[in-house]
Amino acid sequence: MKLNVNSAQQMQDLGRVIAQTAQAHDLLLLNGDLGAGKTTLTQGIGRALGIKRPVKSPTFTIVREYPEARLPLYHMDFYRLEDDDLSSIDLNAYLAEPGMVVIEWPEVVQEQLPETFLEITIKRVDDSWDSTKRIVEFDAKGARNKKWSKSILQSLN
Ligand SMILES: Nc1ncnc2c1ncn2[C@@H]1O[C@H](COP(=O)(O)OP(=O)(O)OP(=O)(O)O)[C@@H](O)[C@H]1O
Ligand SMILES: [Mg+2]
């Protein structure tokens, strides 16, 4: 499934709908180049979950935890992950928590991922660096995630 997202605001709106339809133990993978809009999407999720403090890029911290959210949010960014950091993050422990896990740059931890997740890929449409147009692709693995992506798209219409 593909979706046109034409501004940062629209990306945050998509995040809101994702948050409204999310359930405990949901795993969302976010693919896309630097500056595609992965963190912007997560900010929309965080706001809709009732997080008052700014949702910042966890690039240097790897994981940021927001236990105060309506559905606790665990936001991870594996872009700068070194091999020895990998063992310090227990992804399964986060997935066992009754919250949602959002991962930027998930390919780095590919081998540790469960079989089911919702994967989103954000692509730029135009070559110009300042274009705000994106295409967002959804790829759902497993029954729950197929249902989740359907309800996201339904809620957007
Ligand atoms: N349609 C759009 N969707 C999302 N962000 C957009 C869009 N148009 C413009 N932007 C801007 O692009 C930037 C996206 O930055 P963001 O940090 O979300 O990217 P990222 O994918 O998380 O990058 P990184 O890989 O470095 O973590 C923001 O400044 C945002 O305002
Ligand atoms: Mg980011």
TrEMBL record:
<comment type="similarity">
    <text>Belongs to the TsaE family.</text>
</comment>
<keyword id="KW-0808">Transferase</keyword>
<keyword id="KW-0479">Metal-binding</keyword>
<dbReference type="GO" id="GO:0005737">
    <property type="term" value="C:cytoplasm"/>
</dbReference>
<keyword id="KW-0460">Magnesium</keyword>
<keyword id="KW-0963">Cytoplasm</keyword>
<dbReference type="GO" id="GO:0005524">
    <property type="term" value="F:ATP binding"/>
</dbReference>
<protein>
    <recommendedName>
        <fullName>tRNA threonylcarbamoyladenosine biosynthesis protein TsaE</fullName>
    </recommendedName>
</protein>
<keyword id="KW-0418">Kinase</keyword>
<keyword id="KW-0067">ATP-binding</keyword>
<dbReference type="GO" id="GO:0002949">
    <property type="term" value="P:tRNA threonylcarbamoyladenosine modification"/>
</dbReference>
<dbReference type="Pfam" id="PF02367">
    <property type="entry name" value="TsaE"/>
</dbReference>
<dbReference type="InterPro" id="IPR003442">
    <property type="entry name" value="T6A_TsaE"/>
</dbReference>
<dbReference type="GO" id="GO:0046872">
    <property type="term" value="F:metal ion binding"/>
</dbReference>
<dbReference type="InterPro" id="IPR027417">
    <property type="entry name" value="P-loop_NTPase"/>
</dbReference>
<dbReference type="GO" id="GO:0016301">
    <property type="term" value="F:kinase activity"/>
</dbReference>
<keyword id="KW-0819">tRNA processing</keyword>
<keyword id="KW-0547">Nucleotide-binding</keyword>
